[in-house]
């Protein structure tokens, strides 16, 4: 089967630093491809190479049959990129922003007008079309950022953390719009620091760490990578974050515990333990001795976050990042073939 | 086509800060600074009041001609012509230091200058004498030619001569150059526009590109199939209306409120306007390159302002007393000013056209370099 995007043995160095190391993956046509990795893993560098912004040292990148090294202009014409930073002209209205970026892809006249209206409607900003972009709310600006990247109806859309810092309503709308784009025929490469979001919409997921591919596959396939552990989630009282972190560090040293971390947003301590650990009393005793109030106790089967942690040794979530609740896990996935 | 230019234009005219700093602030600043520095504006040689005693024999043609000439000179600032009963009497006032020079107007419209002890004042007295002699010679030539060809023309010529103004009104001290009147505003406004071409266009270009880069907009443009040269050139073109507005903001009030005339005719003024636009555009392209090259960690506003102000001071744009002798002549603002003055003062278009050709080459090179730098890959 011909893949829409093929990256083979891609290597990119910045001086002595190897940002991307022999990375290979494929993306099929009309799928949402989640791209996960901790900070500095090489996600952005890889996406910058694929989107023609950055040169690479070695490897092959092929998109829709075009070799990036030979036909970058043809690849650019197929691409729509939604950058992580909100890149909008503040003095231009919402419609003018979309119109400008769409016009760079050759749209003119009525076709351009229709594309602008369609894109604004798509992200729910038709009512704000005449408002200057610097007067829009953060969530609206984030949605407008998407509209500017997709108005020219690209075949391949690259989205770099499109939901960072948005409210629940905007986030919900963004995720829904990504699924609609996929259903409309687009191929989407999507990065996020927020695991549940990727789980929710991605058909396949790649995890990269230190510039290398750690794992790739569907959610079910990735969960199969980790068979030696389970997760315990302990709800704590509203105490100081410092106490939570101290407790997590202390628990991590106990026998049978593979990793432990304190999640400040939820006030939970998440502990990965080996499947052989049957007695969790030492963990609870340790926590109580430190002064942690235990409000709830849940044992979970391995999830993507556990898998990620096992593969990379790092938690994915960014401290302080705003990620409101996720609903309907896995609602958008295409049925497994 | 030109969608990026249109965006630059919209961005400029919708941004109150850009309008203030690009359009109003330089004018206010230059006007305030000009006034502050006016006290330091000393002439190279101080002449003071030029006192001249003169004599022309009663009833001669010279006596009639000199009467009108002396009347006109009396109305000019700084020259006092006093009729003496004899040339000896006029010369004795020079000896007694009561006048600076004595002039004897002869019947053949020639002039003899009796100089005093002040070299500068002697030069001025000689120039007055030469001016009278030249006018007289021209008058005689025209008169004799007319008389030879057609006596009827003599009357018409006399009528024209009688109608010639004996003094010209003006904003301050009028000067006559290349056959036209100019005021100090012509000089001051030209210098202001050259300064604005550097200040407004330069700062606007650097900061525009810098912020677009910082906000990821250049990266977003680079993602499109549009070529780097198109993006850069359209950006430069988009700054032209702003540059034009800056020039107009000085030229229009200077012309209609303060009576500036600039070049001798409409063609000269169109050339002048074209030069200012080309200068502003070239400065824009060059400073855009700086905006592209500068690290995003450094806000270039203050360093660029410091460099521009230093260059303008060193070139003598604000005041020649502050310029760096020797170096000033090689500073871009000074070169631009001199070329413009060649046109406005002497009607000489050569230096301006040469400079425009040089600017066109610099602009082309800047566009090539800027296009390459703009979309360079890491």
Describe this structure in words.
Chain A has 337 residues and is of the alpha/beta class. Chain A has 2 domains: 219 residues, Rossmann fold (3-Layer(aba) Sandwich), CATH 3.40.50; 84 residues, Alpha-Beta Plaits (2-Layer Sandwich). Chain A is built from 11 helices and 14 strands. In chain A, the strands form 3 sheets. Chain A has a 6-stranded mixed sheet, sandwiched between helices. In chain A, strand 1 and strand 2 form a beta hairpin. In chain A, helix 3 crosses helix 4 and helix 4 packs across helix 5. The longest helix of chain A has 16 residues. In chain A, 47% of the residues are buried. Chain B has 378 residues and is of the alpha/beta class. Chain B has 2 domains: 227 residues, no CATH class; 118 residues, D-Maltodextrin-Binding Protein, domain 2, CATH 3.40.190. Chain B is 66% helix and 7% strand. Chain B is built from 13 helices and 6 strands. In chain B, the strands form 2 sheets. Chain B has a 4-stranded mixed sheet. A two-stranded antiparallel sheet of chain B has the order 5-6. In chain B, helix 1 packs across helix 9, helix 9 packs across helix 10 and helix 12 packs antiparallel against helix 13. The two termini of chain B are 28 Å apart. At the A-B interface, helix 2 and helix 3 of A face helix 1 and helix 8 of B.
């Amino acid at each position: 089967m011909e893949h829409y995007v093929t990256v083979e043995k891609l290597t990119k160095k910045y001086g002595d630093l190897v940002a991307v190391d022999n990375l290979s993956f494929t993306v099929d046509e009309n799928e949402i491809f989640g791209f996960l990795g901790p900070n500095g893993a090489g996600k952005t560098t890889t996406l910058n190479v694929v989107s023609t912004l950055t040169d690479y040292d070695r490897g092959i990148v092929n998109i829709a049959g075009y070799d990036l090294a030979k036909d970058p202009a043809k690849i650019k014409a197929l691409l729509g990129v939604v950058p992580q930073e909100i890149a909008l002209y503040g003095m231009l209205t919402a419609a003018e922003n979309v119109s400008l970026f769409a016009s760079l892809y050759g749209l003119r006249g009525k076709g351009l007008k229709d594309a602008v209206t369609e894109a604004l409607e798509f992200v729910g900003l038709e009512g704000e079309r005449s408002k200057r972009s610097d007067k829009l709310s953060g969530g609206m600006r984030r949605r407008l950022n998407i509209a500017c990247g997709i108005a020219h109806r690209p075949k391949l859309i690259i989205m770099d953390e499109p939901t960072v810092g948005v409210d629940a309503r905007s986030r919900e709308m963004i995720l829904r719009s990504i699924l609609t784009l996929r259903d409309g025929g687009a191929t989407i490469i999507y990065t996020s620091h927020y695991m549940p979001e990727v789980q929710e919409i991605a058909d396949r997921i790649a995890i990269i760490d230190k510039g290398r591919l750690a794992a790739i596959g569907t959610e079910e396939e990735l969960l199969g990578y980790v068979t030696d552990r389970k997760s315990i989630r302990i709800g704590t009282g509203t105490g100081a974050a410092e106490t939570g972190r101290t407790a997590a560090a202390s628990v991590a040293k106990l026998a049978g515990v593979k990793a432990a971390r304190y999640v400040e947003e939820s006030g939970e301590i998440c502990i990965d333990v080996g499947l052989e650990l049957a007695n969790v009393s030492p963990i609870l005793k340790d926590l109580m001795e430190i002064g942690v109030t235990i409000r709830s106790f849940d044992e979970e089967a391995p999830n993507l976050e556990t898998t990620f942690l096992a593969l990379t040794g790092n938690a994915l979530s960014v401290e302080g990042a705003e990620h409101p609740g996720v609903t309907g896990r896995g609602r958008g996935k295409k049925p497994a073939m | 086509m030109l969608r990026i230019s249109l965006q630059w234009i919209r961005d400029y005219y919708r941004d109150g800060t850009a309008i203030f700093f690009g359009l109003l602030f330089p004018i206010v600043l230059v006007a305030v600074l000009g006034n502050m520095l006016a006290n330091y504006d000393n002439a190279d040689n101080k002449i003071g009041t030029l006192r001249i005693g003169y004599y022309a024999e009663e009833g001669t043609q010279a006596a009639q001609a000199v009467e009108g000439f002396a009347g006109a000179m009396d109305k000019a600032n700084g020259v006092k012509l006093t009729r003496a009963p004899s040339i000896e009497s006029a010369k004795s006032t020079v000896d007694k230091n009561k006048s600076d020079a004595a002039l004897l107007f002869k019947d053949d419209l020639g002039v003899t200058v009796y100089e005093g002890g002040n070299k500068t004042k002697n030069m001025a007295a000689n120039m007055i004498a030469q001016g009278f002699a030249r006018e007289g010679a021209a008058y005689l030539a025209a008169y004799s030619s007319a008389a030879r060809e057609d006596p009827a023309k003599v009357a018409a010529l006399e009528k024209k001569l009688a109608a010639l103004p004996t003094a010209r009104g003006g904003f301050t001290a009028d000067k006559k150059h290349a056959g036209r009147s100019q005021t100090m505003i012509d000089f001051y406004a030209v210098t202001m526009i050259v300064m604005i071409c550097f200040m407004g266009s330069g700062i606007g270009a650097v900061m525009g590109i810098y912020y677009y880069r910082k906000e990821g907009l250049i990266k977003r443009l680079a993602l499109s199939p549009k070529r780097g040269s198109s993006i850069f050139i359209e950006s430069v073109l988009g700054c032209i209306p702003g540059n034009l507005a800056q020039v107009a903001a000085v030229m229009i009030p200077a012309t209609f409120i303060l009576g500036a005339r600039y070049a001798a005719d409409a063609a000269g003024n169109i050339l002048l306007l074209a030069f200012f636009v080309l200068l502003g555009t070239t400065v824009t392209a060059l400073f855009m390159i700086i905006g592209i090259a500068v690290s995003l960690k450094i806000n270039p506003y203050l360093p660029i302002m410091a460099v521009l102000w230093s260059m303008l001071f060193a070139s003598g744009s604000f005041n020649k007393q502050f310029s760096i002798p020797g170096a000033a002549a090689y500073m871009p603002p000074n070169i631009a000013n001199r070329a413009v003055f060649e046109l406005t003062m002497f009607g000489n278009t050569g230096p301006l056209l040469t400079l425009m050709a040089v600017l066109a080459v610099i602009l082309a090179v800047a566009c090539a370099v800027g296009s390459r730098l703009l979309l360079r890959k890491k």
